[in-house]
Amino acid sequence: MTPAAPAQLLPQAKRGLLLGLHGWSIVVGALVVVAVLAPLLNLAVPAGNPLHFGDYGVALVAKIMCYAMCALAMDLIWGYTGILSLGHGLYFALGGYAMGMYLMRQIGHDGNYRSDLPDFMVFLDWKTMPWTWAGSASFVFQMFLVVAAPAVLAGVFGWFAFRSRIKGVYFSIITQALTFAGMLLFFRNETGFGGNNGFTDFKRILGVPITTPGMRVLLCVLSGLVLIGFFVMARAIVQSKYGRVLQAIRDAESRVMFTGYDPLRYKLSIWVLSAVMCGIAGALYVPQVGIINPSEMSPASSIEMAIWAAVGGRGTLVGPIIGAFFVNGAKSWFTQAFPEFWLYFLGALFIAVTLFLPRGIMGIKERLKRTAVEKTGVEEKA
């Protein structure tokens, strides 16, 4: 796995309309499915009806949509800019922890210890709230942290890394070391983030019970809308002049420098944007799964993000979203039917994609389309 690939292996963004008639019809269709059809099938259709969309399905799809946001963020930096990150799980977890802090404060006196402090602080015999929790009772402030925490960390790290012109496998290793250091830090009880248990047992969000069917569907709908919004934004980015410079940096950074562009500003800005996207995904993920702990910062979680993008087809935007659904859908089935074989399947899948499908699932579509055109051309000549 390399941070960049020859230009001929990666598709180039096409100029023209943002999505076109076909693209916009797909987006509108996705909006209808997410915002109208899914809620109706879950809330209005009785549980015994074959068309009923169960609570488990709602939770699974919502979780995968959060993962798809991370895959899309990975595509922007890896597929379009040639920067392979193996540490974006850190930004996902930071957004999740920011949301988790607010949710822990929403528990109030409904915790096991009936205290103003979160249960884990009472258990550790803490007497006062640490300074890191200042403002954690405010939803607006914590939503600001969901964006600010990943952005600041990514900005500081990216500034020093890109300024030092660290590239390739060395950059990937450093990002993995950063997320591993973050995981070790959050494992410590004295940091005030729940240690290895993290945050759980959430009760409410904005005063509304978090486990009600209506809130579960609302969070699923919100995740879908954010994912669609991120996709449209990413499409606008890659088709703009800014996006074309990113692709030029991916293919030949030294030539971009010779033409008068500063790669540092472009790489840093897209790096920070991708981190913020992961942070928002983490914030949507936590209330739906009901837990956040340092395991979300494990290097394996970040590597999986790269696998989603590679399997779907990096440099395509749609591909990583498909890859996230395909891999996590398979994971959901494998971990129930054959849990001991899941990691073997994941490794085999990535090897197969690397060797036989360098453009991922989207590459199959392109190959079939090219074959159809070639056959049509042959028939016409005949």
Describe this structure in words.
The protein has one domain (54-381). It has a two-stranded antiparallel ribbon. The chain has 13 helices and 4 strands. The two termini are 44 Å apart. The protein has helices at 20-44, 55-79, 89-107, 119-123, 139-163, 168-187, 213-239, 241-258, 263-289, 299-312, 318-337, 342-356, 360-381, and strands at 199-200, 204-205, 208-209, 291-292. Helix 2 (55-79) packs across helix 11 (318-337) and helix 10 packs across helix 11 (318-337). Mean pLDDT is 90; it is low at 1-8.
Mean pLDDT: 90
Radius of gyration: 22 Å
- Helix % is 55-70%
By DSSP, the count of extended strands is 4
Can you lay out the helices and strands and say which pair or pack?
Blueprint: H1 20-44, H2 55-79, H3 89-107, H4 119-123, H5 139-163, H6 168-187, E1 199-200, E2 204-205, E3 208-209, H7 213-239, H8 241-258, H9 263-289, E4 291-292, H10 299-312, H11 318-337, H12 342-356, H13 360-381
Antiparallel strand pairs: 1-4, 2-3
Helix pairs in contact: 1-7, 2-7, 2-9, 2-10, 2-11, 3-5, 3-9, 5-9, 7-8, 7-9, 10-11, 10-13
In short:
By secondary structure, the chain is mainly alpha-helical.
For the structure shown, list the relevant keywords.
two-stranded antiparallel sheet, mainly alpha, disordered N terminus, 382 residues, globular
